[in-house]
């Protein structure tokens, strides 16, 4: 997935140019925030509940699928208002609308992920996940003369393709039931609000501020580095998502599993950071060429954030497994406040480098707070 994403990024940056690629980054960043509304913590809570109550798993899957589609409808309406009235989408409203329409298909794909994770079918989940970037890459390779509008159409087609493959792999029809809505919302709301908070400072706030103060080219330079950073987080997510059902279950020796996982994560990232720092100029040059030179310094700073971000995945999922989602929300609000004020101060003065250092500080603060809370629960 990382390899395909890097190849795709290299093609998009060279074909679209810095300005148009910046519009692509801005659009996808804003709508990732809307995707978090459609999810609202249901994946993590659903996996936890189904792992702890396997006899009710099918009912849980159906209820959460229905609820997720209701939430996606709310996210879609909010997205329409943003497209119509936010000046940042001037000139790219049609492209933004196509990107927004993907929210329903992403919601259904997330419902399938709950099933894959709970049933420990991570190999099948990985196939579905790979189909999305693979389909997108194939389309942009076939249709070489594309613009931003076509890129968004390809994005939508690839998402639908991966959803169809996922349904075939799970060998079950997607069932939905609108039932126990308030029960699930009461259980999910701390995680849902935290997810909104996390996505806001992780994906949207810095891009929107950079667009406001500096322009789309700077969004493109920062967006390329951040895209690489997000891709490098995927191994942490896949690893922790794989063990999350075990952490949530009633198995013994969960503490031993946690400690082994933390040792594996820390060792891996400490080996990776110096290597990534060293080859950063080559990576940026290979991906995007000389027009994206400013991305090198930004990426090197973001590499430092990987250490804290990898641990945050393990700490966060461990707290959820212990029903600590309310604690995660309160801590997330503190981190959000730091991120907003930090970006508001640093981006106008230091540009994209300021945004990169605030990302490092945000991840470090989150790691400290989550780690401290997890220790207290143990």
The shape, in one word, is globular
What fraction, in percent, of the residue positions are helical? over 70%
Distance between the termini: 35 Å
* Portion in strands: under 5%
Count of individual domains:
1
Number of helices: 12
Radius of gyration: 20 Å
- What structural class results from the helix and strand content? mainly alpha
Reported for the largest beta sheet, the result is: none
Give the averaged pLDDT, no decimals. Answer: 85
How many strands in all? 0
* SSE string: HHHHHHHHHHHH
Give unreliable regions as ranges.
Answer: none
Based on the model shown, name its key terms:
378 residues, mainly alpha
Describe it.
With 378 residues, this protein is an all-alpha fold. The chain has one domain (2-377). 87% of the residues lie in helices and 0% in strands. The chain is built from 12 helices and no strands. It has helices spanning 2-39, 42-52, 57-85, 93-101, 103-118, 122-142, 148-170, 181-213, 216-248, 254-288, 295-321, 325-377. The radius of gyration is 20 Å and the shape is globular. The two termini are 35 Å apart. The model has no long low-confidence stretch (mean pLDDT 85).
């Amino acid at each position: 997935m990382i390899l395909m994403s890097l190849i795709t990024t290299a093609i998009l940056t060279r074909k679209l140019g810095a300005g148009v690629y910046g519009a692509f980054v801005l659009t996808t960043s804003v709508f990732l925030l809307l995707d978090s509304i459609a999810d609202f913590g249901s994946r993590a809570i659903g996996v936890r509940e189904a792992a702890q109550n396997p006899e009710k798993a099918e009912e849980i899957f159906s209820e959460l699928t229905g609820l997720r589609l209701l939430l996606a409808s709310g996210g879609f309406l909010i997205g329409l208002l943003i497209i119509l009235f936010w000046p940042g989408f001037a000139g790219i409203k049609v492209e933004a609308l196509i990107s927004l329409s993907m929210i329903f298909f992403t919601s259904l794909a997330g419902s399938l992920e709950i099933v894959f994770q709970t049933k420990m079918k991570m190999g099948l989940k990985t196939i579905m996940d790979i189909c999305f970037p693979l389909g997108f890459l194939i389309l942009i390779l076939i249709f070489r003369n594309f613009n931003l509008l076509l890129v968004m159409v390809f994005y939508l087609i690839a998402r639908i393709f991966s959803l169809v493959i996922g349904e075939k792999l799970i060998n079950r029809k997607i069932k939905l039931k609108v039932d126990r809505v308030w029960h699930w919302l009461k259980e999910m709301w701390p995680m849902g609000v935290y997810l909104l908070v996390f996505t806001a400072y992780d994906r949207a706030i810095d891009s929107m501020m950079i667009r406001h103060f500096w322009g789309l080219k700077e969004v493109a330079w920062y967006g390329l580095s951040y895209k690489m950073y997000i891709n490098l987080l995927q191994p942490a997510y896949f690893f922790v998502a794989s063990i999350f059902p075990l952490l949530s279950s009633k198995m013994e020796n969960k503490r031993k599993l946690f400690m082994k996982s933390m040792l594996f994560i820390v060792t891996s990232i400490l080996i990776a950071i110096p290597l990534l720092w060293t080859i950063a100029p080559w990576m940026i040059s290979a991906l995007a060429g000389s027009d994206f030179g400013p991305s090198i310094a930004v990426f090197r700073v973001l590499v430092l954030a990987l250490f804290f971000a990898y641990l945050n995945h393990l700490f966060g999922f461990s707290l959820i497994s212990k029903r600590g989602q309310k604690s995660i929300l309160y801590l997330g609000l503190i981190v959000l406040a730091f991120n907003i004020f930090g970006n508001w101060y640093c981006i106008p003065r230091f540009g994209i480098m300021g945004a990169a250092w605030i990302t490092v500080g945000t991840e470090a603060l989150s790691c400290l707070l989550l780690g401290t809370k997890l220790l207290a629960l143990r």
